[in-house]
Amino acid sequence: MRFGWLKRLSGQLVLSHVFVAVVVLAFALGVAQLTFRHYLAVTQLTQLSEQGQVIARNVGPQYFSGTMPDYVAKDYIHILQGALKAQVTLVSDTGQVELPPTGNIQFQAVGIPESALARVAEQGQVYRGIVDNVAIVGVPVKAGPSYLGPSYGPNILGAVFVESPLSISQGTANTLTRLLLLGELVAVIMVGALAYAISWRLSRPLQELRRVVAGTGRADDAPRVPAAEDQGPLEVQELAREFNRLEDRIQAQVGQLKREAEARDALLAHVAHDLRTPLTSIRGFLEAVKDGVATGDAGDRAVQVAWEETLRLQRLVNRLLRATRIRSESGTMVPLSLHQIVGKTMERVKPVMDEKDLKLVWSTQEDATVLANEDYLVEALVNVVDNAVKWSPEGGTITIETIRETSRAVVRVSDQGPGIPEELLPRVFERFVTGDASRQSSNGLGLFIVDEVMRHHRGGVDIHSTPGEGTTVELWLPCATG
User: Fold this and answer.
1) Could you say which architecture CATH assigns to the domain 220-328?
2) From CA 211, how far away is CA 162, in angstroms rounded?
3) Which of 239, 297, 310, 351 has the highest count of CB atoms within 10 angstroms of its CB?
4) Distance in angstroms (rounded) separating the CA atoms of residues 32 and 182
């Protein structure tokens, strides 16, 4: 596109700088032209006033007293004017023109205003004004003692009027304005060049950032923008840093999604195995009953096994649904006793404890009131104890402690199992992560459910493990107030 650069940030910055410069310089040019015209007009009036006073002193008294002929007066006027371009008119005290306009320039005079004649010839005051683009100055000619004698005061003999067209000062103002305009054009060009250099420096980090963003997601090693963090305005540097932080978060999430995908694939294989085995058993026993192969006690046994396998399938499906439900809704929160939660948990896990000949010891029993959903909180604690049961050796001991701290309640569950490998410890709360893939009884949702439940209760869960010695899981949540 021919003018595509105008749509870029650099082009728009250049245009904006040039536009502002043009507007400011145009305003300055207009103000300067008015200033030039006013200053030069005032200067012209001042020069005419000075010239008129010189003529009034050196020519006026002799001329109006009759001692200086017209031709001599004209010669004197030309000499006294020097290079000043003006017309000089001598007027009597009655307003009559005694000496027609004479001087170093010829132009169409506009005539002396009546107000000027009255002010100068009658009142003896100096007049300065502009009439029809012509500068007019009137100076009274007064007779001193040398003409009237020492007993007489000053008397007005007439007036000297000096006229000059303003086109003279206006021409000078126009010349100065043109020179200023030329300087401003040069300034605009310099502003454009500087604006281009500045905009290029400003847009270069953004171009680098755009290039990096365009390459995001196209490779495993995500590009970064280290150069932009030290270049350009502070906002661009902060944007680069935020992008790098976002890239780090994206990479972390992508890594977690990859791990979850791998764990999910393993879980699907595990679930498929768990589903296939009971379904095969159910189908085999039901076919035996259907075909009449299993009858009597054998038939009853086949039905019993099929029923147990059905319950096993139901437990697996319920666990998957429970993990989804807990994450999507928090349930109703009510004040509950911590002892009540632990007591119901111990009742639910007792059959499993007895089956493995494990001891469940409640060593520290400090009660506290918490705001919680009983079903979810019991489910979380059961999951923790259930994990301890799975990994504890037969005849081992599982210890529960309930502790009330300043503003929170803590439930600590410790086992004597083999512990959790150090590389797996940071990921134990992720979905589908299991400590040992060979254990088909684990689906990797237990601790994930625990973590979600504690988040909903504005609490948390911490886990500490020493390989070969055991694992301690600590649940904490704020105490109820009021």
Assistant:
1) Orthogonal Bundle (1.10)
2) 76
3) 239
4) 13
CB neighbour list of residue 344: distance below 8 Å, 6 or more residues apart: 374, 378
Given a cut of 60, is residue 147 above it in pLDDT?
no
Summarize pLDDT for 446-464 with one digit per residue, the tens: 788 888 888 888 899 999 9
* The total number of residues written for the chain in this structure: 482
Element (H, E) at 137: strand 134-143
Question: What pLDDT, in 10s, does the model give residues 198-234?
Answer: 777 766 766 776 676 666 655 555 556 554 445 556 6
Fold of 331-478: Heat Shock Protein 90 (3.30.565)
Task: Give the dihedral sign, CA 23/26/30/32.
Answer: positive
| pLDDT beyond 80 at 383 | yes
Residue in this structure with the two tokens 């963003």, named with its chain if needed: 213
Per-domain residue ranges for the chain? 4-172, 220-328, 331-478
Chain position carrying tokens 């000075």: 50
Q: Within 10 A of 343 (CB to CB), how many other CB atoms are there?
A: 12
Cβ atoms of 293 and 284 closer than 8 Å: no
Q: What is the mean pLDDT of residues 111-137?
A: 86
pLDDT digits (tens, 9 = 90+) for 311-355: 767 766 766 666 666 655 556 788 999 999 898 888 888 888 888
Q: Per CATH, is 4-172 categorized as 1.10.1760.20? A: no
Exposed/middle/buried for 66, CB within 10 Å: 0-12, 13-18, 19+? Answer: exposed
